[in-house]
Amino acid sequence: MFVSDFRKEFYELVHNQRVLLFVASDVDALCACKILQALFQCDHVQYTLVPVSGWQELETAFLEHKEQFCYFILINCGANVDLLDILQPDEDSVFFVCDTHRPVNVVNVYNDTQIKLLIKQDDDLEVPAYDDIFRDEAEDEDLSGSDSEGSEPSEKRTRLEEEIVARTTKRRQRREWEARRRDILFDYEQYEYYGTSSAMVMFDLAWMMSKDLNDMLWWAIVGLTDQWVHDKITQMKYVTDVGILQRHVTRHNHRNEAEENMLSVDCTRISFEYEYLCSSVS
Predict the structure, then answer these.
(1) What does pTM read for this prediction?
(2) Taking 70 as the threshold, does the pLDDT of residue 262 lie above it?
(3) Rounded Cα–Cα distance for residues 249 and 38 (Å)
(4) How would you class 170 by CB atoms within 10 Å of its CB: exposed for 0-12, middle for 13-18, buried for 19 or more?
(5) What is the chain's Cα-based Rg?
(6) What is the pLDDT of residues 95-135, one digit of tens each?
(7) Where do the segments described as Disordered lie (predicted)?
(8) Contacts made by residues 7-11, CB under 8 angstroms, sequence distance 24+
(9) Right CATH number for 1-123+195-256+269-282 from 3.50.50.60, 3.40.50.2300, 3.10.560.10, 3.40.50.360?
(10) Are 95 and 66 in contact (CB under 8 A)?
């Protein structure tokens, strides 16, 4: 399920717990991890950090540590696969997933107990509706007729014919629903893309708790830049997120005119350089 209040539904839950961090080996994940580590160190949260590069490493690390932890945090891994099916955890295990990979697996979205998604819902997720992809198994049970011994043969025959029609209709509806489900999931899962930087998500958490620092802001900028230079996000998404970070930069590094020409080692500024597209003429 999507977490709506990161502070109450995530941070305050793990605040007094010992947690395990699984962190992917990309720059954005490392920056997000640095921000979360800074928050944990500030609040004396006990944690163990395990870097992972692929599902095999994640499975191996989880099997090694699962008996010692109930709360697991996954950064830039886990959102786009059926996490419970892969890891087969105990029922008391809870996973907090902060991941930029899209699309988000629908099982993770609609699991209300063990999967908590730390994902900005203002991203264009377009998750299918629950009733379009999940069906109550009780609805699929065949109608069972209960013939009364005292019934007349004609009544039994009529009841049997009605049951046959009902079963046939139910099977046809089931096939039609499954066909629609396949089409919906195909449209939803056919393209892979990336959402908001995990470093930005973690910085937003720090900001909501009034614990954001210039170092954290720098890590958020680096995480977003990593997405941009590796063509993981569109120019429109990049410009939008840069605008968000620019406001934080202004807030953290406000200077008056007398200080404008003075430099500080703690000062942060976002600036842009023109890119020159050179083409050779043959």
Answers:
(1) 0.81
(2) no
(3) 19
(4) middle
(5) 26
(6) 999 999 999 999 999 999 999 999 987 777 889 999 999 98
(7) 139-162
(8) 7/205, 7/208, 7/209, 9/116, 10/96, 10/116, 10/118, 10/205, 11/39, 11/205, 11/209
(9) 3.40.50.2300
(10) no
